[in-house]
Amino acid sequence: MVDKELSWRYAEDFAVEPPAIQAARRHALEVGIDPISPGVGAQIAVLAAASATHSILEIGTGTGVSGLWLLTGAPEATLTSLDREFEHQQLARTAFAEGAVPANRIRLITGRAAEVLPRMTDGAYDLVLVDGDPAELLDDVEHALRIVRRGGLVLVAHALWRGRVADPAQRDETVADYRALLATIAESTAVTATLSTSGDGLLQIVKTAE
Predict the structure, then answer these.
(1) Helix and strand counts by DSSP (H, E) for the chain
(2) What residue ranges do the domains of the chain occupy?
(3) What is the pLDDT of residues 101-140, one digit of tens each?
(4) pTM of the predicted model over 0.70
(5) What is the pLDDT of residues 173-205, one digit of tens each?
(6) What DSSP state is assigned to residue 100?
(7) CA dist list (Å): 180 to 36, 160, 167
(8) Which terminal Cβ of the chain has fewer Cβ within 10 Å, N or C?
(9) Which residues contact 98 (CB under 8 A, 6 or more apart)?
(10) Which of 109, 99, 98, 14 is nearest to 57 (CA)?
(11) 4-207, what's its fold?
């Protein structure tokens, strides 16, 4: 029988992060942010490349780790990124500059997703990454599915929430919200979805109907 944990670690080590992303990851850990893993980063880069992404919305800028990975896959895309922490976004801005991302391809919005997302246009983005406040998860994904175009991607980071979602003994509110989201998406006829075990889990949703 294959050792699944060994395979998981091997897959994670397969992803090689460029120096700018390595630096952004160090900054994230220094300020207490849990960034996506290298394996998840490589996966979202592949998804962005395969879907011919031109416009990206990121909920949760952090220090720029996920944004840089997305733009690795879609270097000609524009990235709009939301975060409530201005200081984190300043670190992300530095990371984008170190990654040679043109400033005109980046738009950083400081504020709560709950206040910003309702003002965004339906179907305006090719790809939306949800990696914000877990307490706002369900609302964020609902808005993401409205904001993304038909045929576009919604990606939800940390979908297995530190390995707790799969453990029946774990019943805290955050775990319950992730389980509720996964159950709803699995039953929806308006999307096609899959759940990857890379890193902390990545829920991948394609919007197939309005």
Answers:
(1) 8, 7
(2) 4-207
(3) 999 999 999 999 999 999 999 999 999 999 999 999 999 9
(4) yes
(5) 999 999 999 999 999 999 999 999 999 999 999
(6) T
(7) 21, 12, 14
(8) N
(9) 19, 20, 23
(10) 109
(11) Rossmann fold (3.40.50)
